[in-house]
Amino acid sequence: MKKWSIILFIFIGLGLLSCARPPERHLAIKPCVECHQKELKAFLANKRVHAPIREKRCEACHRPHGIIGGVYLKKALPQLCLSCHKRQEIKGKNIHPPFKKGNCLKCHNPHSTNYKFLLNKGPRVTCLVCHTSERFNQKFVHQPAKDCQSCHFPHMSNFPYLLKKEKDTVCLDCHKTENEVFLKAHKDYHLKGTYCTDCHSPHSGKEKGLFRLYSHQPIKDCDLCHLGPKKERPFSLKRAGNDLCYSCHKKERPPFNAHYIHPPLKEKKCLTCHAPHASDFKGIAISTERQLCLSCHKKMEKKVAEPFVHNPVAKGECVVCHNPHSAPEEGLLPKPIAGLCYDCHKREDFKKLYQHSPAAQQKCLTCHNPHASSQKWNLTQALPRLCYNCHKEMKDEFGKINIHTPAQRGECYRCHNPHSSSYRFFLPTSRRGFCFGCHKEMKQGLTILHPPFIKGDCEKCHEHHASNNPFQLIHLGAEGCYPCHTSIERKVETKRYVHKPLAKGKCTTCHNPHGSKIPGQLYRPWKGLCLSCHEDIIKKEEKKRVFIHKPIEKGECGRCHYPHYSNFSKLLLTSISSARLCQDCHNLNDKNLVKRHLNRPLNNTKCTNCHTPHSSTSKSLFRHFLHKPFAEGHCEDCHEG
Length: 641
Description:
single chain; two-stranded antiparallel sheet; alpha+beta; 7% strand; 641 residues
């Protein structure tokens, strides 16, 4: 009994062991550096290494990708960067555009570099990738500008231009205004560190004084405009407003004395547009030409956003067309509109023999917007609507069924020069052959051409713009052919029998209206062409040889038939009641031929009584069903010799 108890205990123990869960096994994920040793070595070779790379923690930014290659970030930028660099969260009035867009990699390398802050190309060069203006790259560079972060925050600031302090006061960190050298350089005027950038560029200059690109002439002789430093009110102006400017710039002379005056000049507000001391913009303007003009002309701001912008406007060169002070023409134009346009657009292109009315009258703005447009070439309206303003009759014409493709697309300029031409209707070349400019493939492979087609007189058959007929034909069918082919029209009316296609006016059933490789401008040789309708004239019988009349075999249907009309049935050349039609090929006096016909004279015989003119299973072209004596060659049973 004890023995069985021990055995039972062993079995229960084994059962319990078999039900126990196996120990858990975790899949070990390899760190990135285990595979990417080559990349790690390259990163660590640089002077500045991003902390996660230095600590070999690629997984801080990247997800593992396994066998399939690819760079997978844990978060999108800039959230990934801000998860560690919390101080850099977007705050402040002014934000650096790349930072605002979350494009941290525009300036920083995410792994390692030889420059501080992990900059891509060093403190100055990284900035100059985007800031390419001339004012940053002149001969003399301001010492702090060699490291932009001396004056600017790289990400955001509460001050304009991402400055660390208010404009100009940032200069006082280096420049002591009461210093003797500083005072001497500024004509003994006591400056308080304000308005420094009115005269000096904070980045670079053409000379040591770092004056801005464009300087007002008296800038080195301050007392020409200002009261001296010893006066009761130093820096005060000698005269008020524009009167000071007019002491040099005489208002009675150009460019200030023309009929139409720019409002800021009229209102004596020169400083609306000009800096009094220096500027980085031509004409000592306070901003770029485009920005300056649009600051007042707000409506134009929306206009110049159109897809097609006049070239000077696109370049921001408003003064190419407008005088900024005064001008003899309305809109501050220095000359009448057409004369102004000719400064850029060659005059000879508008003065050819035939001139479009707006061009002849020098009314360019009838068709063009001088600034910008939603239409190509700065047109005031889409084509063809623009043309319809004057050519009202064309609107009705283009309502027809078949419209010339360029006209249908509103591409009037494909055929007509909109300004002037040496040819009528403003065509770029002579009317003859003009159509082949687009339809050149129509001539290819053709050797026998329709005379109007070879001359390029397409308008003899086709309407220029539109028609209610197919292919813009002037007339349908034979009505279009008869004006030239008058003899055919006349005979169609007088002959007894007319070929069916011609009777229906369908000349193009047989003839190509432009040209062909076959005489008569036929689509196919006679045999194939005729048989395409008259297929029944060659009767084929199964397992029987078919013999074809030689003229048909050779494709010479015209040996027996007129192609257009005839006074004889079947369009035959002569009556079928005699052998005259056959005698052109068959010698009716041939002894053998006469003998086979019982020596009877054949001249007045109607050959088609016995013979078929087209095809037969008989070599002699006998008709299909034959009288038994005739079939057996016993003609004498019925006929006398």
